[in-house]
Write a structure and sequence with these properties.
Blueprint (H helix, E strand, L loop, with lengths): L1 H10 L4 H7 L2 H4 L3 H8 L3 H4 L7 H14 L7 H22 L4 H5 L15 H6 L2 H18 L9
Helix pairs in contact: 1-2, 1-10, 2-4, 2-6, 2-10, 6-7, 6-10, 7-10
């Protein structure tokens, strides 16, 4: 299941965005290094700016590569995709009250030092990130299965 895969990837040291995006690597077709690099800017709420949650951003990246649009003049497809992204964000927000990293973590500061914290047992214990990552992967997997972008056998 993608939820467990995403959570495991986070425990391996990948950022929240990378963990969610990489949980779908078998269906999006990018090699792991390229996929990890593509998602690398979005951890910590976009480079520890504590803006949009990296798990949500990873979900959006995967949704874009799996069911996004590519033509600059594709107004209808763009509208459909933005509606898809808003629906995914809405599901995550309904479950957690926000899609903003600092709000999810209960932080009062908007921006933090760029140096990530060490991944210790205490780090994992005090943060909801692993569960949020699992939720984002599960929300996207459910959406993709329900809308025919992915087959259940691809789990």
């Amino acid at each position: 299941m993608r939820k467990e895969r995403a959570m495991r990837l986070f425990e391996e040291g990948y950022s929240c965005a990378q963990a969610v995006f990489l949980a779908f690597e078998d269906v999006h077709g990018l090699d792991r290094e390229t996929a990890a690099r593509l998602a690398s800017s979005f951890g910590g709420g976009m480079g520890r700016l504590r803006e949009v949650c990296g798990a949500v951003t990873g979900m959006f990246l995967a949704a874009g590569i799996l069911c996004g649009y590519s033509s600059p003049g594709a107004r209808e497809e763009k509208s459909e995709h933005y509606a898809r992204i808003q629906a995914l964000a809405g599901e995550f927000e309904k479950a957690n009250g926000s899609i903003v990293c600092r709000e999810l973590l209960g932080l009062s500061v908007k921006r933090q030092e760029p140096v990530p914290e060490e991944r210790t047992a205490e780090y994992y214990r005090k943060r909801p990130c692993k569960e949020l990552i699992g939720q984002a992967a599960e929300i996207l997997e459910t959406y993709l299965l329900e809308h025919g972008y992915m087959q259940s056998a691809e789990k």
